[in-house]
Predict the structure.
Amino acid sequence: MTAIDLPTTEGRIESYALSKPLDFAPASADALPRIAYAAAHVVADPLADTDPWLDTALDWEATLAYREHLWSLGLGVAEAMDTAQRGMGLDWPTSLELIERSVAAAKARGAGALIACGAGTDHLAPGPDVTLDDVIRAYEEQCAAVEAAGGRIILMASRALAACARGPADYETVYARILSQVKEPVLIHWLGAMFDPALEGYWGDRDPMAAMEACLAILADHADKIDGIKISLLDDAKEIAMRRRLPASVRMYTGDDFNYPTLIAGDEEGFSHALLGIFDAIAPAASAALLAMARQDMAGYVRIFEPTVPLSRHIFRAPTRFYKTGVVFMAYLNGHQDHFTMVGGQESTRSTLHLAELFRLADRAGLLRDPDRAAARMRAVLAVRGIA
């Protein structure tokens, strides 16, 4: 049995014995009872001669290999989203190249490789001189680029719009203009301020329920141009309340990394599909749980998903915007990349204690597929951080 010495919150070092990893049966996309996107992370190039806080350099081979891994499990890829560090190190030019490469890989793989791509305004810096027309032009540029690459659009929330909008009417103006031009129905992205403080008051109101009213009005007015909405407020009650009021043709995609099992399972009045950052980190379990649902084995669904929830809540704990560090750390522990270096130097955003607890929770969820390798990599990170 593999064991490792890990730090504790009491300032001690304790021996932790790893358990046997679970054997998750992979699914195919056509076997799943829900549409399930994993918002995918990117792999930094650790040998690039760049300034990590200023420049973006990706390991394209490892980045695309991880997308192939997600597709092999029947999951879709939500590309160039906040999990890929949009707005936290990944710039628009690199995002566009990522989209182009990933869409090409999906097309080469065939019909089972589901992909949708983030289009936003992140190349437009918020400022006092930015107008609604500037925001519209920025959205138009990115939407046109995603469509030219052959991708489906996820219309990402805009920091620039949040900064310059005076109320709900301004959001209606911008979204109406963009939605009138898109070639295919898009996914709307409502990202809460816990994920990005610059999005406080999105849809024109700091009260989430009032903001929901404004968002629902836009969805109703433009339902023919909207596939669904991803809501990331980490509040299952708000998601359910909104889900029950969506236009009949508009899907709910949960972005709730705290309550996803019950939201995906649904209730007598409906259910949520999934577009989740945590599905990057727990992809084998997510695939297997949804396959159990497809077989009407809800006990198996719960048994697989239940131990992943403490892990997810830990990875997405406040400050939630730093969750990407945990997602990448999981990929490192499981051998999907050879290093724990992140775009923008974001590997520094979580403490050693945070990473040690992540390790324990991942093991308890059966997600460390090679315990010996995971322990060796955990020891290497601890050593760099001064714990031998």
